[in-house]
């Protein structure tokens, strides 16, 4: 039996990523030839939303599936392509500077989900006219606006 195959574009957005304590953020995942999902977090960062988008994409697939995840987040993609996890595991979830890995809760969840699937990670350039990447960005930004009451649902 052949594993189901997916292509999905993910993106995260944050209103003001530099604000202390976090700011409103949104995430989205857009499946090519499939559904789209998005959501909101009241106090977050852009990196947390990028991770959440990837987590949600994998959650909407079954274990064993073949998934190509396209993301404009070097933070997410490079963790897998450069296997940052190996060093994190060896150092007890500390980074190369000996500090706790930021967003460790989300990294652990994403790593566990990815380990149950065959995932190919692809870095795409953001805001460069890629239809699905632009769609994911738009949905992530709209999630922020909806949560803030700036977009009224029909």
UniProtKB/TrEMBL annotation:
GO molecular function, one term: nucleic acid binding
Cofactor, free-text remark: Binds 1 Mg(2+) ion per subunit. May bind a second metal ion at a regulatory site, or after substrate binding.
Pfam families, alphabetized: RNase_H (PF00075)
Protein's name according to its UniProt entry: Ribonuclease H
Subunit structure: Monomer.
Binding site for Mg(2+) 1: 11, 50, 72
Sorted UniProt keywords: Cytoplasm, Endonuclease, Hydrolase, Magnesium, Metal-binding, Nuclease
């Amino acid at each position: 039996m052949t594993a189901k195959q997916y292509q999905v574009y993910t993106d995260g957005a944050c209103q003001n990523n530099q604000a202390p304590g976090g700011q409103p953020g949104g995430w989205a995942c857009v499946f090519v030839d499939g559904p789209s999902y998005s959501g909101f977090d009241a106090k977050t960062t852009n990196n947390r939303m990028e991770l959440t988008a990837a987590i949600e994409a994998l959650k909407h697939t079954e274990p064993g599936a073949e998934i190509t995840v396209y993301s404009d987040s070097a933070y997410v993609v490079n963790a897998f392509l450069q296997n940052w996890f190996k060093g994190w595991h060896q150092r007890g979830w500390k980074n190369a500077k000996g500090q706790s890995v930021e967003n460790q809760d989300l990294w652990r969840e994403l790593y566990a989900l990815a380990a149950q699937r065959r995932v190919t990670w692809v870095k795409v350039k953001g805001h460069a006219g890629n239809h699905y990447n632009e769609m994911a960005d738009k949905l992530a930004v709209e999630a922020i606006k909806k949560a803030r009451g700036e977009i009224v649902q029909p």
